[in-house]
Each structure stands twice: as structure tokens, then as C-alpha cells.
Amino acid sequence: MNQQLGNKGEKLAIEYLSSLGYIILENNWRYGHLEVDVIAKDKSELVFIEVKTRVTKDFGQPERAVSWRKQLFLSSAADAYVHQNNFNGETRFDIISIIYKNKLLELEHFKDAFWPGVL
After folding, report:
1. Which region holds residue 2: left if phi is over 0, alpha if psi is between -120 and 50, else beta?
2. CB contact at 8 A, 101 and 8
């Protein structure tokens, strides 16, 4: 159930980002045990996006589930991606928060949601 919900959320996030003109480079990109939900280009900026999908806000906003530990993992994966692809430019970390229960109820996009190494 959670995997299906997560997959639906990622699909909605990709549709949303594409509608804004983002170029989707990767979906569920893996490096060892690390994973980035979506990697995209926003103009010249490389964006690493964590998608959090829930059916309710009863346990808090979905974006609050991106802990400092998850941020550290995303940062490490981003470093690997940048190195593997010889990317030399600006990067950022976004979070897309989705409430979805049989239909999209709410989608929020947090640009520059966190900066690696800054707690």
C-alpha cells in the first residue's frame, strides 16, 4: 500500500514538474543504498527532489518526514550523481509534499527546502 501510494505521488510530482518546464532526468535514481525520488533540470539548475505522499495530515505535514538523516542521504546521493555526470553548476534540494486519497487533495512544492550541512 505505502509503495503504491509513493509511486502515485512520484508520478503526480513528475507531471507537476513537467508542467512547469522542468526536464526530468531520473526517477528513483539509486546509488548503492541511497535513492533520490526525482532528479530534474530547472533551467540550468540541477534539482534533487524528495517526494513525500500521505493520505492525511493527521500525523503532520508530509514534508516534515524529511529528517536530517534523510537530508544527509540525499546530499550523499546528489554528490555521487554530480560526480558521475561531471555536472559543474548550481544544485538545489526540493521537497514535494502531497496529500492523496483516491485523488490529489494537496500538492506543495518547497524549493531550496534544505541546504546540505546546515541544520
Report:
1. alpha
2. no
Which residue range forms the structural domain that includes residue 6?
Answer: 2-110
Q: Quick check: is 87 in a domain?
A: yes
Enter the pTM of the model.
0.92
pLDDT per residue of the chain (119 residues) written in tens, 0 to 9: 578 888 899 999 999 999 999 999 999 999 999 999 999 999 999 999 999 998 888 778 888 889 999 999 999 999 999 999 999 999 999 999 999 888 888 999 999 999 876 54
Q: Which residue has the cell 496529500?
A: 99
Q: Are 64 and 16 in contact (CB under 8 A)?
A: no
Is residue 91 in a domain?
A: yes
Closest CA relative to residue 93, chosen from 60, 31, 61, 47: 47
